[in-house]
């Protein structure tokens, strides 16, 4: 509490912060692809809010959003350097969206694992512009204010992000169709059925295993239907016999949590188009799995 503030002033500030918190986390998570880093942004926003002369703030929610967004951009810029030394493919940290399907947003845009992975290829400002516009429905004028740029440039940033996603993703399917194809894939992967695997995977399918350096996770993406199919068949006898399967939701879509000996070992998410499975995403890094598994118990 700053000097001269009354107790009820901080109470009001707390209420305003808690009201904005889901949105702050939702923006930061989409920009960073990390729940831990998003929580750091939210915590730092709270500290700055406490130390701000709040009597001069006309719109607390707008102020908090601007602070959190700029903190997330700064963190994303430094994260790019750190991820260059990451062992193996990097995937976003999964989030359980059963309680908040939109994750604090107006729309559930930029929330799927595959979308977050593709947005990672953009610079943090482009990514943030897309998130603010597409997920949180901010007008371009507001986006430009938050990003400290012109409205015309804000439009260009969002347009560039849209083009990038459109070039990388085919026509999507319904959640029900997504689950059906994942069920077929899972059955074929567990039994090593090569012909079914080749039938459900697209020609240019990519399999990413994010193990953060743990044994058993491929340190390079496996690319193309023949290579991915054979990799899965070779992988099956060692991985699936002792595995327990649990259907869960991650980032708004059906996913599969794989456990062995009571310990989670992988979260499997897939990116599905009308042509089949385009991407397999195996989150195996214990540091990313643990928070997700813990959230399922809440």
Structure in words:
By secondary structure, this protein is α+β, with helices and mostly antiparallel strands. It has helices spanning 7-32, 35-50, 60-83, 113-119, 124-135, 140-147, 151-168, 175-191, 194-200, 225-239, 286-297, and strands spanning 201-210, 222-223, 244-250, 253-260, 263-273, 276-283. It has a six-stranded mixed sheet with strand order 2-1-6-5-4-3, sandwiched between helices. Helix 1 crosses helix 5. The radius of gyration is 21 Å and the shape is globular.
Set down the secondary structure blueprint.
Blueprint: H1 7-32, H2 35-50, H3 60-83, H4 113-119, H5 124-135, H6 140-147, H7 151-168, H8 175-191, H9 194-200, E1 201-210, E2 222-223, H10 225-239, E3 244-250, E4 253-260, E5 263-273, E6 276-283, H11 286-297
Parallel strand pairs: 1-6
Antiparallel strand pairs: 1-2, 3-4, 4-5, 5-6
Helix pairs in contact: 1-2, 1-3, 1-5, 2-3, 5-6, 5-7, 6-7, 8-9
């Amino acid at each position: 509490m700053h000097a001269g503030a009354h107790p009820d002033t901080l109470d009001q500030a707390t209420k305003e912060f808690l009201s904005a918190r889901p949105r702050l986390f939702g923006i930061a998570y989409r920009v960073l692809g990390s729940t831990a880093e998003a929580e750091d942004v939210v915590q730092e926003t709270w500290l700055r809010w406490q130390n701000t002369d709040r009597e001069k703030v006309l719109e607390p929610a707008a102020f908090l959003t601007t602070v959190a967004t700029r903190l997330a951009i700064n963190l994303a810029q430094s994260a790019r350097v750190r991820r260059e030394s990451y062992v193996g493919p990097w995937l976003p940290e999964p989030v359980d969206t059963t309680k908040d399907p939109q994750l604090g947003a107006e729309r559930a845009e930029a929330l799927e694992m595959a979308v977050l992975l593709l947005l990672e290829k953009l610079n943090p400002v482009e990514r943030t512009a897309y998130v603010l516009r597409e997920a949180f429905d901010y007008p371009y004028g507001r986006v430009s204010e938050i990003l400290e740029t012109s409205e015309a440039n804000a439009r260009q940033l969002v347009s560039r992000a849209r083009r990038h996603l459109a070039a990388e993703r085919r026509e999507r399917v319904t959640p029900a169709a997504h689950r059906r194809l994942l069920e077929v894939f899972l059955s074929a992967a567990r039994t090593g059925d090569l012909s079914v695997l080749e039938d459900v995977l697209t020609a240019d399918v990519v399999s990413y295993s994010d193990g953060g350096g743990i044994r058993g996770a491929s340190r390079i993406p496996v690319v193309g239907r023949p290579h991915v199919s054979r990799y899965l068949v070779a992988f099956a006898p060692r991985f699936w016999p002792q595995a327990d399967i649990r259907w869960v939701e991650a980032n708004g879509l059906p996913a599969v949590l794989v456990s062995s000996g009571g310990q989670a070992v992988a979260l499997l998410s897939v990116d599905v188009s009308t042509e089949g499975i385009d991407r397999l995403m195996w989150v195996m890094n214990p540091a990313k799995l643990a928070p997700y598994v813990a959230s399922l118990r809440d």
